[in-house]
Specification:
heterodimer; A: mainly alpha; 2 domains; 66% helix; elongated; B: mainly alpha; Arc Repressor Mutant, subunit A; two-stranded antiparallel ribbon; 64% helix; 6% strand
Chain lengths: 265, 107
Amino acid sequence: MSQLIVLYPRAWRARYGEELKDIAAAGPLGIGGSIDLVRGALDAHRHPELVDPSVAPPTGLEPVSPQRLADLRVARRLGIASWLGAVAWIFAWVVAANGPMVGSGVDAYRDGAAAFPIYFAALVMLSAGLIGQMIRLPGRARAARLGAFIGIFAAPLWGLGPWLLVFALVLLLALLLLAVGAWWVGEWSGPTAFTVVAVTVIGSSIMVSVLGGGASRPIGEVLMVLFVSLLTVNWLAIGANLQVLPSVIEGIAGGEATTAETAPA
Amino acid sequence: MNRELAELGRFAEPTLYILVSLSGGPKHGYAIMLDVEAISGEPLGPGTLYGALARMEKRGLIEALEPVDRRRPYRITGLGATTLRTQLEGLAGFTRLGLDRLRGASR
């Protein structure tokens, strides 16, 4: 039952989390109790005003060492690389869509070879963002870390050629694992995780339908634009999550600092 | 039901039970759960308990005391006691009225 407590908002967990854990430790609550807890979490998200922020401790984060802060700053830079990857990803598809026509008649096709280096760079930069996630995610986020780890390798492998769809599939599954796993342990917000899952699932469906040849040429082109646009959100979401850095709000004592999560400086 | 409790929607009934429980002295969350189950005969889920406690704290019906280990006791406030008394007196009047009418009907 204690795992369900992560469904509550951070401020709520800071205020009532220990008490709920105490109840969880007292004995199993069964299905009814678990459903009641999920219902309570939904209510807590609908009524955040019920918890006074001044009563709650400043953060639900654990104290971090100066070394950890330095690592998180590195992760933040990798997040910026992920954002640049989003730009490269769109640019690559624009270059590919405007390549010179080769051949004639029904055999004519557009040569998008000039886009390959940009396309590869975009996926390497996504990989950089995933390395940032590996740095940021705590050890308890095992599923999310596994997703990031797989994605780190799958992204550049798909970057070797857009037709290498087995790597695309592995990458998209890894992103789903990362999003759900990070949300499950409270490291990603619900909206961020939901957005990544939604764009990845819809983007994958579009990719399959286009490759399956079920769409006519103009519709296929529209679907490709949609596919590229949707997947861009993954670069942005992964980068954005890394920009939130802890900042020291109390003096460092015994090598540890109490922290609060804030917007980027 | 008085307005203070009626505004709590689905938390109105658990709030009444929690006020009755705390009128016997301060208790922490788990002790309230057990006491409410003994009073009402129905288990009180943790989500409902803390949803109600948060609302009651916000309205000043109860106050949190310093935690002992991980357990934080809650105490009924003056406003909480007044609200509970008003509610119980209203229910007592309602009960008397109903019983009187039943007696009249059975004659």
